[in-house]
Amino acid sequence: MSQAPATCPFTGAQSTPNTTPATGLPTDEGREAPVADWVKISDLYTNPFPIYQRLREEAPVHWVPEVNRYMVTSYSACHDIEQDEARFSANERNSLMKRAMGHSMLRKDNPEHQIDRDSYGATLRPATIKKHWNEIFAANNEKYLSQLIAKGPGADFVWDYAAPYTAENLRLICGFHNATQEDLQRWSQTMIDGTGNYADDPDIWAKAAASSAEVDAAIDEMLPYLAANPDQSLLSNLSSMPIALDAIRANLKMTIGGGLNEPRDVLATTVWALLSHPDQRQAVLDDPALYSRAFEESVRWVAPIGMYPRETTQDLVLEGIKLPAGSRLGVVLGAANRDPKIFDNPETFDIFREKKPHLAFGGGVHFCAGTWVARAQVAQIALPEVFRRLPDLQLDPNSPSVDAGWVFRGLTKMPVIWDS
To answer: Coil, helix or strand for 64?
Structure first.
């Protein structure tokens, strides 16, 4: 069987487009942000990485009219924002996420944020994952990986395996015994489409609103049931806590979004990358401990959540760029994680690179609460089993993989083949 082509759908241009560098040295008062009126949402969706290269080289912060906010692309600036909620608030006004999902913990600052976050602890802490969830993840992985294999060569790795596997895990973590994994997939996609609806598409808002109403109804049905029949799920834990219903609804919708697309996309991206780099694939086969490194390199290389918003609480200067109070920011993790000032050859996938902290799971008080779940179901369970059961797995050379997105980015098509 021929080796699949290694042309990468994620890397983008290796050379920076011709551009005029930003002029003027920063002063104590800062300078005005350069305007990137050449950035278009359609181009970001197709392939944001050449755009990020150009933005980073010009300045760490740009005003981007197309998305009506300042885009922050350097690692150091994004890191500073994550560590300073006093000056960079998560509670953004006119938030797309609030409109699509309600006011979740991701759009709250402390102390309100911590109250909501603490309510998730019993379900998502590493000890609970090891004691309870890993066995469930392994059973689900066996089911959906077997279904992929039964479909035979030509099956789509994302939609025939990664998506249903991670959706079923999330359904049980949340406690939606009155829904299917297909429901979780539909809810997740339509609501995160709303969260990333910077083009203000009315059809996207309508679909997000319909899913939001379905989730509300499912929560309202499950809360009394789980109060009487408790389990390890989030809704069961929340049913016994003094948390407002609106907060429960918003936080579960937020969880349905990130809790599905992050592990789904990093699973597919990691397998794609290993199949495209035979030496690294062989390395993880020889040393299974490297699966965790492959996972971390994958989320650095293609951050599943590529951008999130913040809002300045005061006039300030960020890396020489003047930002007035109330400025709407886009913290572009997809750009920060490829900053050449931090990572050598950042456009390449390399599990052997020097270990440095990436920003794919956020940071500070908003560090992703589902990080340990994602690592468990992908790095510890799914990846080793995929390569054990399909040792000759390859990308389909006659049907190229496709990736898309910038607020959320992942493979939308990934046909695979193997010797059946």
So the answer is: strand
For residue range 183-211, what is the model confidence (pLDDT) as tens digits? Answer: 999 999 999 999 889 899 999 999 999 99
Cα separation values, 394 from 4, 52, 274, 351, 419, Å: 6, 30, 10, 19, 9
pLDDT of residue 414: 98
Q: Rounded to the nearest 5°, which phi and psi values hold at 342?
A: -110, -45
The span from the first CA to the last CA of the chain, in angstroms, equals 12
Identify which has the larger pLDDT, 21 or 178.
178
C-alpha distances in Å from residue 164, one per residue of 167, 181, 381, 402? 5, 6, 15, 19
Residue 163: both structure tokens together: 């998506």
Cα 59 → chain centroid: 25
3-state secondary structure (DSSP) of residue 179? coil
Does pLDDT of 15 surpass 60? no
Give the torsion sign (CA, 222, 226, 231, 235): positive
- 320-344 pLDDT, tens digit each: 999 999 999 999 999 999 999 999 9
d(CA 236, CA 246): 16
Computed over its alpha carbons, how large is the radius of gyration of the chain?
A: 21
Task: Quote the CA–CA distance of 402 and 10 in Å, as a whole number.
Answer: 9
Residue 257 confidence (pLDDT) above 90 = no
Tally of CA atoms within 13 A in the half-sphere of 306 that contains its CB:
23
| Residue among 286, 318, 96, 349 at smallest CA distance from 201 | 96
Confidence of residue 25 (pLDDT cuts 50, 70, 90): very low
Give how far Cα 258 sits from Cα of 6, 7, 14, 379, Å: 29, 28, 29, 17
Q: Specify the pLDDT at position 28.
A: 57
The residues, any chain, with a CB within 8 Å of residue 418's CB and separated by 6 or more, are: 153, 390, 392, 393, 394
Report whether 208 contacts 190 (CB < 8 A).
yes
Token pair 């609480």 in the structure block, residue: 313
CATH 3.30.450.20 fits 41-417, yes or no: no
Q: Indicate the DSSP class of residue 4.
A: P
Check residues 8 and 65 and name the one with the higher pLDDT: 65
Instruction: Work out the average pLDDT over 386-405.
Output: 97
pTM confidence score: 0.90
Q: Which of 241 and 71 is assigned the larger pLDDT?
A: 71
**Beta strands 321-323 and 61-64, pairing class:** unpaired
CA separation (Å) from 256 to 187, 251, 263? 7, 9, 12
